Amino acid sequence: MRVLIVGSGAREDALSWRVAASPSCEAVYAAPGNAGTASRGENWAISATDGKALVQACLREKIDLAVVGPEAAIAAGVCDRLREAGIATFGPSRSSGRLESSKIFSKRFMQRHGVPTARAVAVHSLDGALKVLEEWNGECVVKADGLAAGKGVVVAPDVEAARGVVKEWYASGHIPGGGRDVLLEELLVGREVSIFAICDGRAMYPLAGACDYKRAGDGDTGPNTGGMGAYSPPVGFPKDMVDRVRERVLAPVLRGLLAEGESYVGILYCGLMWTGDGPYVVEFNVRFGDPEAQVLMPRVNGDFAQLLKSAADGALDLGTVSFATRACAGVVLATSAYPRSNTPLAGLCADVGLGADAHAFWGESALAADGTVRSTGGRVLTVTALGDDVARARANAYDAVRALAKRLGAAGALTYRTDIAKF
Ligand code: AMP
Ligand code: GLY
Questions:
Q1: Range with the lowest mean pLDDT among 166-175, 322-331, 378-387?
Q2: Do the domain assignments include residue 110?
Q3: Would you state the pLDDT for residue 410?
Q4: pLDDT-above-90 percentage for the chain
Q5: Whether 308 contacts 245, CB under 8 Å
Q6: Is 161 within a domain?
Q7: Does any ligand 2 atom lie closer than 6 A to the CB of residue 7?
Q8: Is 341 helix (H, G, I), strand (E, B) or coil?
Q9: What CATH number has the domain bearing residue 7?
Q10: In this structure, is residue 113 part of a structural domain?
Q11: Who lines ligand 1 at CB under 6 A?
Q12: Would 105 be classed as within a structural domain?
């Protein structure tokens, strides 16, 4: 099978790596790809959101399966374009993608279908927001409605702080994500965990779980980011966690999607808060997480490409795929300016091979003519390692980080959290 991976981050590098290792995969392409995907197949210089150009290239290259990674591509309707052209596509329609691209749509969907989630009020203006906050008590989570790369949520410790956030957003005219609408939400207390379900339009199956680290600094300090590290499987949750998520979250979501005429194909990423009362949905994403994909892919056994193809064909078949009992931890190496800005870094060593149980996946980057790598994103690499349990995976990942940091040629330019997967 000839597979296209759409996207350019470390998530797509990990997906491309796992797909390329699948027995059914004959060739793997990426659009636009990065330095990692270039090492195992052709990169096409096509934007992840350019549906028309992607369709043309897929037809020309006889692509059997397109796997769409980033939320921006899904929100731009890339999966719809590919499917209309008859290309088997793993990723949801733009319409289903609203579960992620609009926090207000997503909240209303959960309310309509009885999915446990925090109480929330949608507001459309500064006056509206201030009026709601007059009656608010305690903490308030302020969320911009649109896609904001993990940067559109502020957990305000009190009403005064929440007022400050909405005033700043509305007064500056720069609400993260570019919309006008904001969700004011009650704070959920518990531990966060993400469950990844695979869906073929008719059935939903929980594949695996992971925990990610969203804040920039050690000890969960500093601003929210796209994610600074992750580990899988989750530790410290009830043994029946997956069954409870299946019953309380996945079942009503699937019923709701079917009732609303949505044929959901792809990954449903359930971002959960595990409260005293079990799982509450903090957010849905309509794709694999980044960096969660980087810690899930090394745990996959079997023909992963075939699994994705079966879902894209509307006939999910778990086939030979299973998740290893071994754990995986992943640490993101970011530029010191991340998440404030993305600083290009040139002249990085392209050889990031680390041995059988450790991997380094490139973020946005390209191979230069001299064989070095130029990184263009804030998150430069995700370094992952397997281990018999999370503690060992963590130790192996940090050993790999230190080995790689020496070799990379970017001393001082990169930072990383030192407490990923630490309990
Ligand atoms: P989101 O983009 O909606 O996932 O929000 C980003 C992060 O903000 C989440 O991963 C949580 O850590 C935090 N967060 C969002 N909503 C809530 C909530 N209702 N209660 C507590 N924390 C939240
Ligand atoms: N790591 C969080 C996300 O991919 O949205």
A1: 166-175
A2: no
A3: 82
A4: 90
A5: no
A6: yes
A7: no
A8: coil
A9: 3.40.50.20
A10: no
A11: 118, 141, 143, 150, 153, 155, 185, 187-188, 192, 214, 224, 271, 273, 282-283
A12: no
Cβ within 8 Å of residue 168, ≥6 positions away: none
Residue 204, Cβ density class (10 Å: 0-12 exposed, 13-18 middle, ≥19 buried) = buried
Helices 251-259 & 103-113, crossing angle to 10 degrees? 100
pLDDT at residue 356, rounded to an integer: 85
Q: What are the helix and strand counts (H, E) for the chain?
A: 14, 24
pLDDT (tens digit, 9 = 90+) per residue, 227-267?
999 999 999 999 999 999 999 999 999 999 999 999 999 99
Supply the residue whose CA is at minimum distance from atom 2 of ligand 2.
Answer: 289
CB 74 within 8 A of CB 97: yes
| Helical (H) or strand (E) element with 3 | strand 2-7
Average pLDDT over residues 131-147: 93
Give me the chain's average pLDDT, please: 95
CA distance 126 to 167: 7
Number of domains in the chain: 4
- With a CB cutoff of 8 Å and minimum separation 6, the contacts of 118 are 141, 185, 186, 187, 188, 273, 280, 282
Task: Tell me: pLDDT of 150 over 80.
Answer: no
Q: Does the CB atom of residue 206 touch ligand 2 within 6 A? A: no
pTM here?
0.96
| Best mutation site among 290, 361, 382, 384 for ligand 2 pocket (most ligand atoms within 8 Å of CB) | 290
Q: Is the minimum distance from the CB of 363 to ligand 2 under 6 angstroms? A: no
Ligand nearest to the CA of 271: 1
Per-residue pLDDT, 239: 95
**Nearest C-alpha to atom 5 of ligand 2 is from which residue?**
289
pLDDT tens by residue, 191-216: 999 999 999 999 999 999 999 999 99
Question: What domain range is 162 assigned to?
Answer: 121-185
Buried-exposed string 4-15: b where 16+ CB fall within 10 A, e elsewhere: bbbbbbbbbbbb
Asked which of 307, 323, 339 is the last residue of a domain, the reply is 323
